[in-house]
Amino acid sequence: MQWLPKFVIILNTLVFGCALLPAGMASWLAPMLFDAPGSGQRLGVWLAFLGIALFPWVAVASVVAGWVLFSRGSRAIGTAVSCLPYANVLLLVLGMATMGRP
For position 53, what pLDDT does the model report? Predict the structure, then answer.
């Protein structure tokens, strides 16, 4: 199973690399989540904003750090670090689920 960490990092590089351009455009529009009156006080809006706005930065940093750690021999840590952008997706999902609640 020595191929699994490398496969996961390659897969994450492809997935997050393809998602980078649309995520970058979405991050430019993320502040519009606060256009509605009172939306600045809603936790769901803030979670969705953080998930969208930080995704491109987290994706680039985690893929680069994952490959660096993998090449230096820390396969498990490199694989885990390359999976960090999934936390942004989770933030977005949680934000959308709690968007209507104050």
Answer: 94
Q: Give the span between the Cα atoms of 53 and 34, in whole angstroms.
A: 13
pTM of structure: 0.84
Structure tokens at 60: 């680039």
Vertex 15: Cα angle to 90 and 93 (nearest 5): 15
Residue 53 belongs to a domain: yes
Residue whose pair of structure tokens reads 């502040």 in the numeric block: 31
The answer to whether position 102 is within a domain reads: no
The backbone torsions φ and ψ at residue 100, rounded to the nearest 5 degrees and listed phi first, read: -80, -5
d(CA 77, CA 70): 8
The two tokens of residue 51 are 């998930």
Q: Per residue in 2-39, pLDDT tens?
A: 888 889 999 999 999 999 999 999 999 988 888 888 87
Q: Which domain holds residue 86?
A: 3-97
Q: Are 19 and 63 in contact (CB under 8 A)?
A: no
